[in-house]
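Data deposition worksheet. Section B asks for the primary sequence of the deposited chain exactly as it was used as input, without tags or linkers unless they were present during the calculation. Section C holds the resulting structure in token form. Section D is free text for depositor observations; keep each observation to a single sentence. Incomplete worksheets are returned to the depositor.
Section A, Depositor: J.P.
Section B:
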Amino acid sequence: MQTTELQSIFNTFNSKRIAIIGDVMIDSYLWGKADRISPEAPVPVVSVTKRESRMGGAANVAINIKSLGATPIMLAIIGDDEKGREFLHLMGNLDIDSTGILVDANRKTTVKHRIIASTQHLLRVDDELSTPLNQEQEQAFAKHCISVLSANRPDAIVFEDYDKGNLTPFIIEALVAFALENGIPTLVDPKKRNFDFYKHVTLFKPNFKELVEGIKIEGLPKDNPNAIFEAANNLRNKLQATYVLVTLSEHGVLITNGDSYFHMPAQKNEISDVSGAGDTVISVVSLALSCGLAMDKMATIANIAGGLVCEKPGVVPVDKEQLLRESINYFNGK
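Section C:
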């Protein structure tokens, strides 16, 4: 791809609206120094130097979408609690519209606490309620989502499933049907519980472990693109999806449309933290797909983006200008 073509595509991102439906949460960080071992147990003692809260889970996709210049439409249910109010405050700070957020007194806002010493991720503590929505809740949420989507007409819909209960078979079926009726592409970042319910979506993005578990295959070699293509195509046929994109961590990404596949090896990055890399990949792919890019171009730019965020500690969005520079360098062989 020529530099001018890439620049045009990245400029087009600015006009796109991407809906994200799924499980939102707060990513809470304790940063500090660890230079001694506790006398109470063989664990490091972290002297806290900084505390920070960020929007996480499906909301990290919204942040990535915004960082890429597009408009995110966030749809989720949070608890009527202190952390829920903090989440709404964080949305306001980033100027992300909260119209799509439902507050439910019977839900709990998920918080992931991470303890980091220098750049070393030492521990994560999850405070959550991950039971699926009950019938009343899911009907109310589906109605709410369709109302917001009808009013805002997104260029793509991303299902960001963290297995925390916001996405149920009923919700998935209702919103995929809405998307099909309205010609809106759908993309899925799945988890195990709902794996088989994402039928007729445009792009399904499991990681290698999810692919293996989803099609119940043992001994699949992670470094054999032909074998992964066959497995991914079996999944594509099972779900009747247009594309399956498999993230392979140190082996890059592979995408197939059934007739052929494209495999891009991982780039040589200094890995600091893989947290949130999948969110970045699906964010970039959703925008690339809405711009009409071919599957190899979608996968390439998304793979570059995933590598860039892995260079930084914690869950961080991709930098649009850096991604553009790296993409130009890659396609021009630099």
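Section D:
The mean pLDDT is 92.
The chain has one domain: 3-25+56-109+129-331.
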